[in-house]
């Protein structure tokens, strides 16, 4: 019967005195401003959550992890933990040089000796680690569209933990948890990883897992980075706190983990297991489609539903943490209790009820009832507070199309119609208005266009977050940038992409501003559709034709779409 070895594990921090000295010296080093994901990784490197790693992976370790889930010395490690930087920054460095790693406010958290610098084969990393080089996978999208082109590797010296102002008492380092388990005498602990609010089915399955493993229970939610679109961690932690009261305090505890998830399914499950082992746990619950990233660009699942359990089982002995497989719990109405779906013998004679994540989101979005058997009233109240019905949430309508396609005209008409309806403030971020007020220094290179669109996206996401309606009408020629903006906005409300599909020939024929003529004469360079690319949207929420259709009808089509999406109701 496995019990935990709860002696402290190595951290990368130096003593308080050394840290003060090092911090002063590090002020003179070239410094790298860490991205939010890198801050999460660094925290777990420094506090031993990623033990046995001693820093960001070297090239040899990276190659080996990508290829066979092992460090170069053969130790099992499934996830490349790499420090990605831009080429300009990488070029400034000498091998062997120390750099300072700063958080986003400029606080020095650590130093790193750069022993390795290389340009990774990202397509290979995507294939091997995430199973496909497909941007529909959130981590592959991150790899190609957000991560820098160069990786730096080398040992890290920890100066201080990243600062968290929220839920401080609920965050524990591996050694703090180990000390807690020692103190309360918990020798067997089963960890439950989650990125979702907990409902009654989760409570039942965690009870069962603890009973099966004869272990205490650690609810160990991820509060670092999860899947884009997830419920924000502030709401989730308030939900967890409400549910925690329903567990016996003597056998259950909760701690928050500042992990940046990759949604890498099977490899992620093994990684999660190793992290929990480092936090002093002996058992780990692995569910169906653990850390699943959703569908690929062909509409199919990236991984098989039990791939994660299979890979975990294969390695659990070596990992030193045992898997408890997650049962799919369903509500049996006649017996008024949750039971594992595959253990119900009298399926024909009983009523089996279940509400999927998608169905729950729909009910919240439409303000429909959420039954008592499904969740706890406190959890539902929290979720309703942050997710009011769609008709009361903010949203963004994002028009895209060629210059002169009619974006601004339709956007203006839509704005007036929405203002006539009332209820929510409406802001128009038209291409020309934005270029005048937010982006006056920018031109039309890819870099500048992207910056322009990211700025629009940022403002629209703030408007959406605060319950308003943002109408954007730039050209926005690049699909990856539009996707990035969509992700930023969907964290707070709906993103409605409207392709104003006027052909380039028609736009040129209209040539309202006389710009096409100038572009043809070569007097305007990089002109979209003439001498610069435009990625036609593949799956916009709506595509409007403007040839032989009046503006009022086009704007009305958008209104109908908004209505069908539940974003506007009879009386707002
Ligand atoms: S982008 O690509 O989204 O940043 O462009 P946007 O901010 O919407 O600006 C487009 C307007 O700028 C004028 N203009 C050009 N468009 C495309 N290519 C080039 N090189 C260019 N130079 C100037 C043009 O009038 C666009 O106006 P709209 O409102 O789209 O008709």
TrEMBL record:
<feature type="domain" description="Sulphate adenylyltransferase catalytic">
    <location>
        <begin position="171"/>
        <end position="385"/>
    </location>
</feature>
<comment type="similarity">
    <text>Belongs to the APS kinase family.</text>
</comment>
<dbReference type="InterPro" id="IPR024951">
    <property type="entry name" value="Sulfurylase_cat_dom"/>
</dbReference>
<dbReference type="GO" id="GO:0010134">
    <property type="term" value="P:sulfate assimilation via adenylyl sulfate reduction"/>
</dbReference>
<dbReference type="InterPro" id="IPR015947">
    <property type="entry name" value="PUA-like_sf"/>
</dbReference>
<dbReference type="InterPro" id="IPR002891">
    <property type="entry name" value="APS"/>
</dbReference>
<dbReference type="InterPro" id="IPR050512">
    <property type="entry name" value="Sulf_AdTrans/APS_kinase"/>
</dbReference>
<dbReference type="InterPro" id="IPR002650">
    <property type="entry name" value="Sulphate_adenylyltransferase"/>
</dbReference>
<dbReference type="GO" id="GO:0004020">
    <property type="term" value="F:adenylylsulfate kinase activity"/>
</dbReference>
<dbReference type="Pfam" id="PF14306">
    <property type="entry name" value="PUA_2"/>
</dbReference>
<keyword id="KW-0067">ATP-binding</keyword>
<dbReference type="GO" id="GO:0070814">
    <property type="term" value="P:hydrogen sulfide biosynthetic process"/>
</dbReference>
<dbReference type="InterPro" id="IPR059117">
    <property type="entry name" value="APS_kinase_dom"/>
</dbReference>
<dbReference type="InterPro" id="IPR027417">
    <property type="entry name" value="P-loop_NTPase"/>
</dbReference>
<protein>
    <recommendedName>
        <fullName>Adenylyl-sulfate kinase</fullName>
        <ecNumber>2.7.1.25</ecNumber>
    </recommendedName>
</protein>
<keyword id="KW-0808">Transferase</keyword>
<keyword id="KW-0548">Nucleotidyltransferase</keyword>
<feature type="domain" description="ATP-sulfurylase PUA-like">
    <location>
        <begin position="9"/>
        <end position="160"/>
    </location>
</feature>
<comment type="pathway">
    <text>Sulfur metabolism; hydrogen sulfide biosynthesis; sulfite from sulfate: step 2/3.</text>
</comment>
<feature type="binding site">
    <location>
        <begin position="401"/>
        <end position="408"/>
    </location>
    <ligand>
        <name>ATP</name>
    </ligand>
</feature>
<dbReference type="GO" id="GO:0019379">
    <property type="term" value="P:sulfate assimilation, phosphoadenylyl sulfate reduction by phosphoadenylyl-sulfate reductase (thioredoxin)"/>
</dbReference>
<dbReference type="GO" id="GO:0004781">
    <property type="term" value="F:sulfate adenylyltransferase (ATP) activity"/>
</dbReference>
<keyword id="KW-0547">Nucleotide-binding</keyword>
<dbReference type="InterPro" id="IPR014729">
    <property type="entry name" value="Rossmann-like_a/b/a_fold"/>
</dbReference>
<comment type="function">
    <text>Catalyzes the synthesis of activated sulfate.</text>
</comment>
<dbReference type="GO" id="GO:0005524">
    <property type="term" value="F:ATP binding"/>
</dbReference>
<feature type="domain" description="APS kinase">
    <location>
        <begin position="393"/>
        <end position="544"/>
    </location>
</feature>
<dbReference type="Pfam" id="PF01583">
    <property type="entry name" value="APS_kinase"/>
</dbReference>
<dbReference type="InterPro" id="IPR025980">
    <property type="entry name" value="ATP-Sase_PUA-like_dom"/>
</dbReference>
<dbReference type="Pfam" id="PF01747">
    <property type="entry name" value="ATP-sulfurylase"/>
</dbReference>
<keyword id="KW-0418">Kinase</keyword>
<dbReference type="GO" id="GO:0005737">
    <property type="term" value="C:cytoplasm"/>
</dbReference>
<keyword id="KW-0597">Phosphoprotein</keyword>
